[in-house]
Amino acid sequence: xxxxxxxxxxxxxxxxxxxxxxxxxxxxxxxxxxxxxxxxxxxxxxxxxxxxxxxxxxxxxxxxxxxxxxxxxxxxxxxxxxxxxxxxxxxxxxxxxxxxxxxxxxxxxxxxxxxxxxxxxxxxxxxxxxxxxxxxxxxxxxxxxxx
Amino acid sequence: xxxxxxxxxxxxxxxxxxxxxxxxxxxxxxxxxxxxxxxxxxxxxxxxxxxxxxxxxxxxxxxxxxxxxxxxxxxxxxxxxxxxxxxxxxxxxxxxxxxxxxxxxxxxxxxxxxxxxxxxxxxxxxxxxxxxxxxxxxxxxxxxxxxxxxxxxxxxxxxxxxxxxxxxx
Lengths: 147, 169
Fold this sequence. Notes:
A: two-stranded antiparallel ribbon; 3 helices; 8 strands; globular; B: alpha+beta
């Protein structure tokens, strides 16, 4: 991925109001993959007695990262929308630590991109959550196709 | 034979509203998103008031899928916690007026959550209601539906599985 394209993707993702409100930062994009971080923030806590982040904040991060992975696919033409997203919460995220989501498209058809993602805190060996989703996909028209 | 007089309505309302407030008010992320709950008897309806910060696609504009997912998960969790708490406050096992939002007992934990996005979330308020389909000793399954203008045109729905809190934990 060229530095140029990464910069464009970064500006695009970080300009989404909700992603920006949650403090998401695009760390890298590949060809159909993306990595986005979300710093710990006390406003996003779900359990005040432990300080653990709410699952909803992790869902928002996974959804954004999945969408970024789809848009970074070399055949993708335009934006995308989530069709469905399933999240498995494997353990509570450690309070105070930044969450990093990594998503990739493992298969794309003419209309759908299938995405897998994980969310990690500082302990990279044990994911906090994992997700699978389907996103709308509009491939770029290539030679011979209708305009 | 005389039956005891029914409880005065304000006593019943105060108890139930105090229990609901204790569940909802202590959670920072619910406050951050501005989600509120209305109660009719034991039925809860969540409201996600529209804010520009919830936008995921500025050109449409449309709600962010993550904001929708969070709203559904919050509603499912509150409904399930409420159904557990309801029995305890109505039987007098838990004193609703002494509940501390920062130390709520018996909160379920999400195991998994699956969201279907049915329509674009429009830039306006959204509503959601959840239904506990199965609530066992260890696990629960909860379905939740969200709509905007029209109750019968859902824009998203979800099913989640939850780990129930330990009874004496």
